[in-house]
Specification:
Elements (H helix, E strand, L loop, with lengths): L3 E5 L3 E3 L2 E2 L4 E5 L3 E3 L3 E2 L2 E7 L6 E3 L8 E7 L11 E5 L3 E7 L4 E5 L3 E3 L3 E2 L2 E7 L6 E3 L8 E7 L11 E5 L3 E7 L4 E5 L3 E3 L3 E11 L6 E3 L5 E10 L11 E4 L4 E7 L3 E6 L3 E3 L3 E2 L2 E6 L12
Parallel strand pairs: 1-4, 2-5, 3-6, 4-7, 7-9, 8-10, 9-11, 10-12, 11-13, 11-14, 12-15, 15-17, 16-18, 17-19, 18-20, 19-21, 19-22, 20-22, 22-24, 23-25, 24-26, 25-27, 26-28, 26-29, 27-30
Length: 295
């Protein structure tokens, strides 16, 4: 054991870091690696105006937690350095701030104790049987998410539950798992890529209302629970809801004070109520929506 700390005025390549204690690396330019990092808590920071990347993609890395930051030279603001980290096991995120992209890949569950601030967020777990992605910090702020629970060979989706919370709205580039997926935002949720999951739960929390627009024709989920709510989550709010699926699905819940639109490629049933100003049903159906609590 023994804490390791290193600082460099320029960039640096990590040939090896091994300790059962913490490891900290701070540089004035990009950080890369040619060998593995073994540590308890890993802290890495680049300090450069315009940003400097952190690229730690060795599949043999094994740390308990990561704090990865791209900052300006004065360390007074986040900077545009892309951040990428891979771990052979699971990992907890202490903090990730950058104005560029952040990519995390792990061989087991990914959790967090601090916020992620990034442009595009890409997170993948690789484990036979699946490993969860649980990023539920209400201070997370990203533009888009790509969240995937995959098998160890990265050849098929796996049963890792996916959960993400954002302080604003975001776009879904991809969500894929054979388990459930839960997305919560304080702004609108849109998508530019497909969602594949078992139970899909999406909620927006905004007093003015924030829409849920998930109209990709290749979405494939078993059930949907879609709600536009006020910031306190005490009442429905005025966000329109739109969902499209390549197959059929069950409606576990839809709640909004605006309109809701559903489009299906097969039969649609419901196990929970629908509350909306207007309901539009498109696609092949058929639709069997006979819940007595529908309003």
């Amino acid at each position: 054991s023994g804490a390791i700390s290193y600082r460099d005025s320029d960039g640096v390549s990590v040939a090896a870091i091994q300790t059962t204690d913490s490891a900290s690396v701070i540089t004035g330019d990009a950080i890369t690696q040619t060998g593995t990092i073994l540590a308890n808590a890993l802290t890495v920071k680049t300090l450069k105006d315009g940003g400097a990347a952190i690229t730690l993609n060795n599949s043999g890395n094994a740390v308990a937690s990561v704090d990865l930051r791209s900052r300006n030279a004065a360390d007074s603001a986040n900077a545009a350095g892309a951040i990428s980290y891979r771990d052979t096991d699971g990992v907890s995120v202490t903090a990730i701030p950058t104005t560029s992209s952040a990519t995390l890949t792990a061989g087991d569950a990914i959790t967090q104790t601090g916020a992620i601030l990034a442009d595009a967020l890409v997170v993948k777990t690789l484990k036979v049987g699946g490993a969860n992605i649980t990023l539920a910090n209400s201070s997370d702020t990203v533009t888009s998410v790509d969240l995937r629970a995959r098998n160890a060979a990265d050849s098929a989706d796996a049963a890792g539950a996916i959960s993400y919370v954002d302080t604003n709205g975001f776009d879904v580039v991809k969500v894929s798992t054979t388990a459930g997926a839960t997305l919560t935002a304080s702004g609108a949720v849109t998508q530019s890529g497909s969602i594949a999951a078992r139970a899909l739960v999406v909620k927006t929390l905004s007093n003015a209302g924030a829409s849920i627009t998930l109209a990709d024709s290749t979405n494939a989920v078993t059930s949907i629970d879609l709600r536009t709510r006020n910031a306190a989550d005490t009442a429905d709010a005025a966000g329109t809801i739109s969902y499209r699926d390549t197959d059929g699905f069950d409606v576990a819940k839809i709640s909004t004070t605006e309109n809701a639109t559903l489009r299906s490629g097969a039969a649609v049933t419901q196990s929970g109520s629908i509350a909306a100003a207007g309901l539009e049903l498109l696609g092949s159906g058929p639709y069997t929506l006979t819940n007595t609590a529908n309003d």
